[in-house]
Amino acid sequence: MYGTNGTIANALTIDLEDWPQSVVSPRLPITDCVIRNTDRMLALLDEFGLRATFFALGKVCEKFPQLLSTIASAGHEVASHGYGHELLYRITPDRFRWDLKRSIDIIESQIGRRPIGYRAPGFSVTQDTLWAGPIMARLGVRYSSSIFPIAGRRYGIPEARRFPHRWDTCNLIEFPMTTVRRLGRNLPVSGGGYFRLLPGPILSAAIREVNRQGQPAVVYLHPYELAVNELAMLKHRGWHFGWRTYLTQSLFRGRMLGRLSRLFQSFRFAPMADVLGLSTPDLVRASGCEEEDSASPARHPAAHSGRSLPVAATA
Ligand SMILES: [Zn+2]
To answer: Who is most buried in 82, 123, 252, 262, counting CB within 10 A?
Structure first.
């Protein structure tokens, strides 16, 4: 078993999605690249004896129904990334309810369990979309990992709390993306493009810093980041992307495998539900907001510490 350094387990999370549909446009079809990329990711996790949370996109599961059972049977947690990868600030609350419920129903039909976690596409729970929390809770979601506590161009709530905490407006735990605090500002380091583009040791140093504060960090990845030549291959197939998209999305993908291997040997990782101390019953009823579980996430010290999310109070 690798990754036994340190005593705090950090959340290892994978957004199960296909690059063109999730990054270029939600109207694009899901390609079969997602199957190969997910197989690569599963093989890597298996090599290091790691279990993770897969935030699965409903459209991907619908197109390739065998994926989720493969992931679940390898011992990973399956959570929801919504159905169509539509950003919350571009849709109505009704549309969001539909999108989330559809994804939950698809996951349940494929693995026989309802997911208890959700991550908004593009971290699109912002100050303007805090209405999403109560909707998640009513659909049985018990934790969200959707808020980036930074001042981002397209996402982020800069004043949001940096560590796991309860929402004020509903029975929901938030596990925000990991940041480091420098000169009074939160800086993003959690994974994805930041992990690829920033100098190697930054994410490790950030996780160490967060763990020293007694808090778990979260790392997020995408299966397509392991596909070094995917964009060149898609271009060859006739897909068109702007040069900026091509450059920023493909740059340094070749670094990922080595970086991840070093990361996986340096820290403890676990699925997000385990890190939060949430039970994962075989079936979680859709009425999750109406009942308190005695094994509730509030038992996790991080979920107890300090006040609830101040920004959520204004929703
Ligand atoms: Zn996504």
So the answer is: 82
